[in-house]
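Hi there, hope your week has been kind to you so far. Do you reckon you could talk me through the fold, stretch by stretch? Thanks so much in advance, here it is.
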Amino acid sequence: MSSPQLWTGFQALGIQVAQNAIQKRYFALKRVLITGASSGIGKACAIWLLNQGARVALIGRDLEELEKIGHQFPNQAVAIQCDLAIDRQQYDMVLSAVETFGGLDILINAAGIIFENDLESTYPQDHDYIIDINLRAVYHIIHMCQSFLEKSRGCIVNLSCEWGNRPQQGMISNCMSKSGLEMLTKCLALELAPVRVNAVAPGFTCTNLFKYAGLTPHEVSVLKSRMMKTNPMKKVANPDDIVKAIIFLCSKRAANITGQILKVDGGQNLTSSITIDWHDTITMNAKFAATGTQPIPRLVDWARKEARKFQGEEIHDEDWVREHESKSNWSTNLADAHIKVTDNYSKLEKTENILSNLEEQKDENGTIYTAENPKAARMIGARQTVGPKSGAVVGGNLLGVGLGAPRLTSP
């Protein structure tokens, strides 16, 4: 190698070393909140950032696993147990993280759940639960963190998946939640700028998520093999592959990138093979079969067995409900929003004259409440008060801009 070439090589090496040093210094003392930090991609993100000197709030339901990470970085990490299905726990979690670090620079929403479901066998509360965790909780947490991120001109990275913009048989609720998450990402990029909001959409990645979804090791192996055959890169990603994309979007190198969905799937989204036979059983959607298993005869057989459903016979009796309830693939004690809405409309229908009923709502002087003369609102909780203009924490309660506006109700 000639001297000029050798010198150029040393220059390139020096530039790379300098860039790596700058990258490490950039994340030192950054204040980061990561949901889903007890496993998978969230855990990998947390460990990478902690090793770069960041201060990280580890959020998850598995407190024991969070503490294992935290004990390795006692001066940088705080472990907070939180069930994202419970709003109050979300408030307490954000308050704890912000009070501990004195602000927030980076929010990574890596928590998520996945389970197979189709329209026929899924109860509304099953669907509501996955929407609550994968979409509503993200919206709620960002709302609470908004003012802190605006103050630090920070960034947000949401974790979507390859089904955010393409359908997957037997995964209707998961596809809906991730599609909504990607649109939320784009809308918030417009609304919150200069806070940057992006999302990473991984392809098939080896994490514990599939174990939690109920797949056996054999089923995961079969799924992995199928995905590798159709993937242009012939590769199944590991959490570190996804972490690199997330870290990039959090770094100065992505300073002018916002509202983008970064796909990290080895080119899988470029093929027509993204739809796969999800579960290697016949417990659900047996009418759909993997290529090579004679789908037409199976479809005919399924139609014969289920023919009574197409012959006008009443099937929605108590036995039918019990049968499908036993097949429900998720159990939750969350209130069914659909029932609430139905009950509300039923009450309205029973009111003979809705307008006259509303007109009875008058103030002390007999004046009907209108937009110009609204009904006075009061705070919930006697100890809650609001300080001048800026947000405040009063009496141990979470108040103020960015931490969720105080909840109001009619007296």
Q: What stands out?
A: The chain has three domains: 26-270, 295-327, 361-409. Residues 378 and 411 are 6 Å apart (CA to CA). The chain has a mean pLDDT of 73. The first strand starts at residue 31 and ends at 35.
